[in-house]
Prior knowledge:
The complex is a heterodimer. By secondary structure, chain A is an alpha/beta fold.
Amino acid sequence: MASLTDSQFIRKLEMLSLLTRKTLGGSLKADRKSTKKGSGTTFADYSEYNFGDDYRSIDWNIYARLENLVIKLFELEEDLHVYIFIDLSPSMTPKLEYAHKLAAALSYIALNNLDRLTIYGLSDKLHTVLRPAHGRGHIFPMLEALQNSKCYGHDTRFEKCIKSFQARGQRRGMCVLISDFFAKSGFEKALDLLQWSRHDVFCLQVSDPDDEKCEWRGDIDFKCVETGRLKRVTVGPAEAMRFAEAVHEWQQYLQQNCAKRGVGLAQASVKVPFEEVIQNILRKGGLVA
Amino acid sequence: MSFLNPLAFWWALLILPLAAFYFLKVRPEKHNTALLFLWDKVFRERQSSVLFKRLRNWLSLLLLLLAFCAIIFALAQPYFTGQEWQRNFILIIDNSASMGTVEGKSSRLQQAREKAADIVRNLLPSQRAVIVSIAADVSIKVGVSSNHRELLEGIDDVKQSSETFNLSALTFLKERKVFFKNSRALLLTDGCFAGVKNLKNLEIVKIGKPGNNAGISDFDIIRLKDKTESAGIFLRCISTYKNKIKIDAVLCHEKRENIIKLIPLELVPGENKAQTFYVENAPAGKWILYLDQKDALEIDNTAYGIVRDVPPIQVGVSSNDRIYNLAVSSFSQNNGIMTLADKSPEVTILSGEAKSETSKLIILNPRGKSIFWKSIGKETVPGLVKTKIKEHPALRFANIDMLEIDGISDITPPENSLIIAESIDKKVLIYKTIVKDKSAYVLNFDPLKADFFLNVNFPVLLCSMVMDLVGREEALPSVYRTGVKVDEHILKRVGFYKFGDKELAAALLSSRETLIDNSKVKATVKPIESGIPLSWYLFAFALVLFILEEILYNYRKVG
């Protein structure tokens, strides 16, 4: 497995970061205005002075003219919270390296833009891969954390993990789910929960074409890599075709579901270089639906 | 049921390792998947199908074991005990001409061979058989043997013959003691021969069924003396067609391309009336007559004959009695064997004293002195003839036994004379003698007395003696039937033969062989084990089971 911290990979991330600036035309910080009023530099409004207000914000010129104490309100400039959820269930094992690269690229861009980044691992329970981090200084720790993250658990439980995420009282931000989205328990409720919490949600489906077709024939004992459940089946051409159709239907359902919710979805095949996937996402306007 | 090779059951010990190997072989491949829930969707099956899948391996194993058991049984060579067919067999295959009748694509002989081969293939190793072919004669193809290959080769060796079936040939088998103990004699025949109903100790395996055939049952062609260079044809045909048919008989000289005459025939079902025809300007030589048609039996469609130009023997008569001239003339008119000669005769017939320059003489009523007898006495009383050498050429066609004759004298023949007939009281009546390069028949009686000259045997006797004296055998017939022995040669095929200077023709000419309708012939064979042996069925059953198992296995392994 190629290291996420080697110089060649980091150079690719840097290139993607530059492409981000070129594509979006400026600092990401300026694009993210908060609706809250705070201590920024841009004037927003006036307000009557109340006891306890910071007297440093009293507009003394107004007081001189009108003899009323008013305070100036400024737009609060907040850093963006980016939450990256990477699927670390055992089903992702063959696609983990690719998922790591995608997560690393997005995280790099976020940290480079001074966003607040948190990386979580998803499986049968939520696992923190990278605690909230801010600034370029966390790039290497982020890469190391991703590098060290391994698959765990015995199932993919999106809903349980998102509930666990919500329970931590996280501020709203952008949630990026990197997964194959092949979960028996489904992903719909997890998306519902994130949207209810007013997060911007983006799904990045990592797929492996080899998963989507079955080349085996005859009597086969299938073992679920997550639950360990066994199933003996006889696969003929008809069954293989029906399986391919089932995979296709599942992916179409994911697309339709995301489109219906206004959730952004990008599909990334492990056969396609990760930087191409990121470039495509950015060219289409970033992680927005 | 019993088994010839019970040791084969030891193979059953392999069943357990076979079952173990089977389960190793059919063990499914294991594969990890993250999409098992999608496979669940694909395989939403009915309960019955699931049950079948669960039992499929066991079913497959059952098939395999069943096939294995079938093979073991086959190797053990099972057979049913206490059956009639356990005895030994004498398989007599009729290869007479009628067995050449074609039915569909095969001839009756081929059917008989196949039937015999079926019986042989089904023989147990303890059973033995003899393979015999029969037509005009009997031929033992394979002596007593239990070797199937040898017996089958013997059956293959039975070839189609052109001869007629000769029932008496079966006696040869008895003489050779071919009918060994505890054996069944099966005659595989179409039954187209006389006496088929009277066969004893023989079981008839009927071969063939009635078919359409028209053939020549009698044929002769002879030179006619009253017409120059003309020939007479005698012809009789047989038809087994249900209706009247019209065909042409084509008469050819020397070869088939040289057609001399076309004879339109109208044949009624069964035996037809004999017909005679004349052919003018018919040269001597080979003649072929064939029926211009295709039918079930081809061999009887053609007859062969030879027209001979043989000069008559010049016979001189030195007697005033006209009876001798009449005797000679009678053979001159009919077939031209002999004729009266004016001068230089080959044979002289004389009565009384033996005065003649001819070297070959027939002397009747001898008198006086002669080199052909030592002494002669007075006449004695009449007597009855008793022949001493019945097979002598002089007596070939004349039956003079117990005929009364008169004019007998006491005669003493020269030494080394061959006495052919005597009277009952031991008086020499007829003898042949050779003295000083002269040969003579001496008939010691007077044919004028006791009216012997009126007897039909009188001219026949003279004719036979004339022919014998000149060394000419009986007039050769224009055509022989196949299977006839001529001068140590058996005429086995139809057509023309040449033995030295002698030219012969042979044709089937058998009404029994031509009448191929064997609907009245009944099979008398008792049940016999024939066809494919039980072991073969078991092998075939095992093969089917293997194929079934292979289909199941293939479905499981390939899908």
